[in-house]
Amino acid sequence: MKKTVIDGVQRYPTNGLKVLVIGAGTSGMQTALECWRKGCEVEIIEKADELSPIGDYFTITPSAQTTLKDYPSMYVQYHNRVYDCILSVFAPGGDCIGYEVVEWNRSNDGHASPDVKISFLNRRPEYAQMQLDQLKRLAIPVHFSQKASSMSEVDNRVIVETETGKKFSGDICIAADGLGTVFRRREEPIRSDVMDSGYSIARCAFPTSHIKPDTPAWKLVETVKEQPEFRIYLADDLHLILYLTADYVGIALTHPDDTGADESWSNLRDPAVLIKVLEKSAATWDPAVVSFMKQVPVKVVDWKLKWRDVNPSWTSASGRILAVGDAAHSFLPTSGNGVTQAIEDALSIGECLRLGGRENAAWATKVHNKLRFERTSVLQLMGFVNRDEIHKADLSAIKKAGKSLDVGFFRLGRWTWNHNPEKYATDNFDACLAHLRDEKPFQNTNLPPGHVYKPWTLQEENERMAKGIQSDLKQNGDWSV
Ligand SMILES: Cc1cc2nc3c(=O)[nH]c(=O)nc-3n(C[C@H](O)[C@H](O)[C@H](O)COP(=O)(O)OP(=O)(O)OC[C@H]3O[C@@H](n4cnc5c(N)ncnc54)[C@H](O)[C@@H]3O)c2cc1C
């Protein structure tokens, strides 16, 4: 059968599968697009009344953009705003430790999405709007104001009930509803497994025009027209990221959590909280940074960095329900990979469902799970290792050495961004299915070459860090550029 073309998107022949997606976040919307493109009928249910305007910037690396070219209108919309950033590291007092270009631009061998101009920074609300616009052009329904409250499986169908009493059904249900997912509560009702990581991240974004030319902060933004910058200040047990672009600037301040027993996951706080956090740290801060903080015109979202231990099982026993994105794997921002892995999931499950078709749909989710788990688990662990590395970095030694910045998320490794998750699913689906169904041998190759996968827990990581032991994660396999 021939592909049909809508809005320039070539859609595979319909496969008779109905996929319900819970959550219109980055992963839910991309999952819906990919499943639709692969021939499924798709609907999204989302608890919010509309897309949230909250959010500043996130990083999407080349491995998550391998199918952008398959959506020609979205491809154009994406390229309307590309921030090809320079990365820089500063000491709190304002001493520049070094500048660097992003890893994939340092490599002579290219990356997984050569046809895409990779934007190191993406404005979250704009990216989400771009995905929603594409869903609309493809007439994929998004039901807002529908909070999923339960899921049940009846005769090979999944029924999702929402708080308004509405029922939706599909052959497959994909829970893309973030860390507090209905899926995990259903699978493990007794385990309350969302934990505090001990840190919060205070974030906001606002138009660059709010920074006044006659203030010390001006020196931070006066050059951004020519060259946007991802600037990180490293202090003891704290780091501050400034996203400096010509139209919007953003702040992400990761700090030890001071909200104690407060159970809410995110608090809208007065911008003065930023100054308070800086004052609490032992460092003396560059007056330009303090002036920058004093000019923040918006409330700051202080997200508690919650954590759920790595769980290898992302599907229900039958395989008809699957979790993707944050619902399957929580990431610390220091992994630089939360959004990338959420989108990689979408690219992988779309292809697995195409290959599995109606007959093997419930196996397809399990194949996806097997193909993706070890990769995401290593990257989740990398978030802790990166945070530890940057919080303990010897800045004067780095400056003295004068070589490329090699700490934290400045070093992800070629294996992370030179991966094509859709192609990986195509190439490995049959062997992985034979492994799951017939116990044939299978080994993932989407890890650092030579890496030997080791399961790990948050408790072990906390103990390692408390003892001051350096992780050997980046010595396990090839993490080079
Ligand atoms: C409003 C918002 C702003 C963010 N801003 C940033 C940022 O600036 N920088 C950054 O790095 N990361 C940000 N994040 C986190 C980042 O987007 C995610 O970590 C990553 O993209 C993975 O996305 P996800 O789709 O798996 O989860 P999420 O982005 O958390 O999306 C989950 C979606 O599911 C919906 N949902 C939850 N429960 C239900 C339910 N029961 N029924 C129906 N729908 C439900 C939520 O409303 C949300 O739309 C933000 C997340 C949100 C929700």
UniProtKB/TrEMBL annotation:
GO terms for molecular function: FAD binding; monooxygenase activity. Keywords: FAD, Flavoprotein, Monooxygenase, Oxidoreductase. Belongs to the paxM FAD-dependent monooxygenase family. This is FAD-binding domain-containing protein. SUPFAM superfamilies: FAD/NAD(P)-binding domain (SSF51905). It holds the Pfam family FAD_binding_3. It comes from Penicillium atrosanguineum. It comes from the Eukaryota. Its cofactor is FAD. PANTHER family: FAD-DEPENDENT MONOOXYGENASE MDPD, MONOOXYGENASE. Residues 317-353 form the FAD-binding domain.
